């Protein structure tokens, strides 16, 4: 879906479980993106003055919409990025919860903090910044967005969403949910652009900050550009978590936690278990139990309620993980379970 006359044009969304194309999405031009950004800046002028009661009411309605449409959106996630349907349902409930959380605590979070000084009156006040660009990943396509949106919108900011290119169907659905809840136009806007356009959007005078959840290389580039512009940046980058099992650990609890940490979202989570460090004293007890639990994991169609683990996000990622396994075996590792590619696209 790339025009030979242009370096970039759009993106294609593909069901990772079937290989079937879901849809084609065209990116905005730089000029179109600038117009959308300007509209977000204009919307900020009135949104920043909205009452806390108004914001809380809209957030509660947003939670209600998310719950009404939870099944539809969970199916959408399963089809577009492979999340098992039961995990998708949980993600939608979590999104509704975070909206209600900020609606409930908004007055407390934004209340001025009085400070005792030698002056007649000193206090810390919390004011919205303006337009915030959020650059979000595909692995939790709704939760990653709503945990940012609920916070930013409740504080009186307007927001632009640059979502991952492989979950554009979810990105459009997020916009429709926001609109259905009754938020004014321009307060939250899905911005279908290529990654390389983010720097230009950040340069817009009405964009006051950026929040990114993604890879370390992208975070370095976008964070550095924000620094050059003296704009705020919040970066949540890749993790490499170790699960450490000591000799006094409950083997059953540890093995179950390690299974969950390794299989959640097909292992595609920044806080997922990347490696296990087990002391020699408990190694011979832990490993067989962990292998037994992993052997019980049902891998298959993400739309099947009995599926524990769906497909990886794309064939490239699957090939990379398989190569890591092969490299480990070549370096002396022993395969205790699996070790081969499963059939599928």
UniProtKB/TrEMBL annotation:
Where the record annotates domain Aldehyde dehydrogenase, the positions are 13-340
Protein family membership: Belongs to the aldehyde dehydrogenase family.
Tell me the GO molecular function terms. Answer: succinate-semialdehyde dehydrogenase (NAD+) activity
Protein name as annotated: Aldehyde dehydrogenase domain-containing protein
Please name the source species: Eutreptiella gymnastica
Keywords, comma-separated and alphabetical: NADP, Oxidoreductase
Provide the organism lineage as a comma list: Eukaryota, Discoba, Euglenozoa, Euglenida, Spirocuta
UniProt KW Oxidoreductase keyword: yes
